[in-house]
Amino acid sequence: MSERILMNKYVVYGLMFVVLLLSACKNKFDGSVSTAPENLEAKDPNIIIFYVDDLGYGDVGAYGAIGVDTPAIDKLAALGVRFTDAHSSAATCTPSRYSLLTGEHGFRSNAAILPGDAPALIRPGKATLPSMLKKAGYATAVVGKWHLGLGNGDVNWNESISPGPLDIGFDYSFLLPATGDRVPTVYLENRKVVNLAPSDPLIVSYKEKVGNRPTRRERPDLARVVADDQHSDTIINGVSRIGTMAGGESALWVDEEFPDVFTSKAVEFITKNRNKPFFLFHSYHDIHVPRLPHPRFIGKSKMGPRGDAIVQMDWMTGQIVDTLEKLDIADNTIIIFTSDNGPVLTDGYDDKAIEMLGEHKPWGPFRGGKYSAYEAGTRVPMIVYWPNRVTASVNDQLMSQMDIYASLAKLLNIELGLKEALDSIQNLDALLGTGTSLRTELIEESFATNSLRVENWKYISPVGSNNLAGFVADKNIDGGFKTQPQLFNLEHDIGEQHNLAAQRPELVKKFQTRLEQIIDSGYQ
Predict the structure, then answer these.
(1) What pLDDT, in 10s, does the model give residues 372-394?
(2) Closest listed residue to residue 281, CA positions, set 100, 120, 94, 45
(3) Cβ 433 vs Cβ 384: under 8 Å
(4) What whole-number distance in Å separates Cα of residue 315 and Cα of residue 57?
(5) Burial of 365 (0-12, 13-18, 19+ CB in 10 A)
(6) pTM of the full predicted structure?
(7) Which of 511-514's residues contact partners 24+ apart within 8 Å by CB, and which partners?
(8) What is the Cα gyration radius of the chain?
(9) What is the rounded distance in angstroms from the CA atom of residue 150 to the CA atom of residue 184?
(10) Which helix (H) or strand (E) holds 349?
């Protein structure tokens, strides 16, 4: 081959290289290719669900909060998709958590608010969001409040505890076994109580008093938080709880340390798994009662402990986002921020949440709250944040947390089983803010009845007993339980003030029939 031909060949190769280089530079700066360390089209994204407890629609700045600042969450909302008609499946904790992790309504497994010693509600073999993600090679973890039951109903807290999160798809768990207001007041890491001394065994009872620790009924002077009778059993850390507990002194938690303990465990999991896809279900205790924020957050809001707990929760959220950015994996991480049900102010403890509310409206423009059949019972904040993949926008379409399951399966090209995630609708385009929601109807479970949303219509099924009529969680939250049907047009009556059931009996009949159909066979 002549020198001339060789030279021309190298010139051509050189020109081709320059063209490719210029094209790559152009793509980098015009946004047509992600600037993340790896091509996001070729790499499964990390997934983090921030699941806050009892956070109302109006409890963060992006949704109109007054008297409390939430800069970390507001940043997610400003750069992500902020939903205005997104719902937990239920107005209480356990059913909503069950639904998020299984993609089906809580009533299909008789899910209700569980006692602290309840058996595992999600049984081994049940398809779950973490087990589905493990099929795609994800590392999976749950950190925070659990309240989905453990064991088989006769837990020996001094031994390995099973079944639990590790038996339904999670690789790692660090938990409050039940809730902050229930015993046992210890951490559970994987299957073992943390720091439990064999010489001081832990005993828990919800039937009779065990051990020598005083209860609030016996020694009200030892309790630093005023509580109702239900929450007046064993005093731990100066707070009376539901249930009694003996032993386990070396394993006791300190409520004020929750933000640091849980955040450190979440950061540890993320850091350990930064080089492979991971799923983190970060299930906050805040802003559930008892509200005992760390001293560095006290007085940071104008609403007392409830507002300070919101500030604390926002800080925790920001710490995780900062970790993602420091590890250079933020661009390949989907964050879903939402709440398990609507707001409540007192809920067993008096921490001046009502008196210090000011102009703040935890329920936003809606009626009701936690437990309630009205809209604020399940309409909660929901934000989807995915840098360079999700466009900042506000989405007013009907959305359900149950749809996260099928939508993520679609994203990862995982085929679901015939009865898997029975109530979950594949709604990926709406979730990422790129298309129209495929959900046009939704059952909203409450403490005492079920409601049906059909687009902007809201039907509340009547309760069978007058004993529930007039139920209120606190003086600000109406349960909405009536012995007569209720029907509202949310397009014109977002506050559910004008019952149209008497004027539109044909819709009452239609919606009651449809409600029963969905309960019997799902949304299809």
Answers:
(1) 999 999 999 999 999 999 999 99
(2) 100
(3) yes
(4) 19
(5) middle
(6) 0.91
(7) 511/452, 511/454, 511/457, 511/459, 511/487, 512/459, 512/461, 512/485, 514/441, 514/452, 514/454
(8) 25
(9) 12
(10) strand 349-350
